[in-house]
Write a structure and sequence with these properties.
By secondary structure, this protein is mostly beta strands. It has a domain of about 55 residues. The strands form two sheets. Strands 4-1-5 form a three-stranded antiparallel beta sheet, with helices on one face. β2 and β3 form a beta hairpin. The longest helix is centred in the middle third of the chain and has 8 residues. The protein is rod-shaped and about 90 Å long. It starts with a strand and ends in a 34-residue tail after the last strand.
Length: about 90
Amino acid sequence: MNLTRYIYLGPQSAACLRIEDSADLLDVQLLHNKHVELPAEHEYTRVLLALKHLVEAPVEQTPASVQPATSVVTDSPPSSGKKGAKSDAS
């Protein structure tokens, strides 16, 4: 059974779907603005799409590789005192 990820936009509901060529049942909770996985070719899915209660969820991409942050070393000595402070020179 191939499931497709959708975002549900209808009122809160639940359904028990009979999967073709199988005795299996698929229980789904349908909550407004939440992700749900449904079989794309199922009649119930098609009805929800026609009613505009479902939109296909965008595919989430994982970053290929994340580089750790590196620290930058500077040659300047640490400053003492406040920036812009006047010196005590007379």
